[in-house]
Design a protein that fits this description.
The structure is a single chain. With 135 residues, the protein is mainly α. It folds into 2 domains: 79 residues, lambda repressor-like DNA-binding domains (434 Repressor (Amino-terminal Domain), Orthogonal Bundle), CATH 1.10.260.40; 56 residues. A two-stranded antiparallel sheet has the order 1-2. Strand 1 and strand 2 form a beta hairpin. Helix 2 packs across helix 3. It is globular, with a radius of gyration of 18 Å. It starts with a helix and ends with a helix.
Length: 135
């Protein structure tokens, strides 16, 4: 099941609005709406925060990108995800795993902020390109 379906079902069950969830996550309602409707994809850590906020526990991410809640066939299979990583990504993961939790959280926050900044710059550049084409 896609993470969006799991989150939407749980939000409906709990009566949680997109506005309330986006406020908790520190993102705009528009960004959260884009995530839920598949127009943009949040990071795995952001999906984890969404699940945590909604009280969704015991989640398994299968190799095909599907999520399973609770015990599933997917959780019975061991997958070596590091085998699929490039040497550069493997080194980054090893370095990250050595950081204390607080520093790892700070690094993730910084990287997410930088990604948002670059996404905003990219969107602005695209908008300027469209204006230039139209004009």
């Amino acid at each position: 099941m896609k993470w969006q379906e799991i989150a939407k079902n749980r939000m409906a069950k709990l009566g949680v609005s997109q506005e309330k969830a986006s406020e908790y996550l520190g993102v705009t309602k528009g960004a959260f709406n884009h995530w839920l409707n598949g127009r943009r994809e949040p990071s795995i850590s952001q999906i984890g925060l969404i699940f945590d906020y909604l009280g969704i526990k015991d989640v398994t991410l299968a190799a095909d990108g599907e999520f399973f809640v609770g015990k599933s066939e997917a959780s019975d299979h061991k997958v070596d995800y590091q085998a699929a990583l490039s040497p550069r990504k493997r080194i980054l993961l090893e370095l990250f795993d050595e950081l204390p939790d607080s520093e790892a959280d700070d690094l993730l926050r910084t990287l997410e902020e930088k990604k948002q900044m670059y996404d905003a710059l990219y969107a602005e550049l695209e908008q300027k390109k469209r204006k230039k084409k139209a004009g």
